[in-house]
Design brief:
By secondary structure, the chain is α+β, with helices and mostly antiparallel strands. It has one domain (4-84). The protein has helices at 59-71, 73-84; strands at 4-14, 18-27, 33-40, 47-52. The protein has a four-stranded antiparallel beta sheet with strand order 1-2-3-4, with helices on one face.
Length: 89
């Protein structure tokens, strides 16, 4: 995905929690790195939380990225796929 670099990803699955994962990534032109936490009971309807990875950064950039995630299904699916690749079998 252009402008996005995956730093680390992971995902687990359990009957109780469903799919739970996280992805650490950076966005070109943003000063801070991010973490997105992902959760889905069945792997089709995903909830998420978006956070700064290490240090607090520019709130405007976080809000801009959150809006982009809401509008850009391709970006959201890219991050989910990065976590799913690491799914424990």
């Amino acid at each position: 995905m252009e402008g996005i670099a995956i730093l680390q990803a992971e995902m687990t699955y359990s009957k109780e929690d469903g799919y739970v994962g996280k992805v650490h990534f950076e966005v070109d032109s943003h000063s801070n790195k991010y973490e997105i936490a992902l959760q889905s009971k069945r792997g089709n309807d995903w909830g998420y939380g978006l956070f700064f990875l290490h240090d607090s950064g520019k709130e405007e950039q976080l809000l801009e990225l959150e809006e982009r995630l809401e509008e850009d299904d391709e970006l959201f699916e890219f991050l989910i796929a990065a976590a799913k690749e690491k799914l424990d079998n």
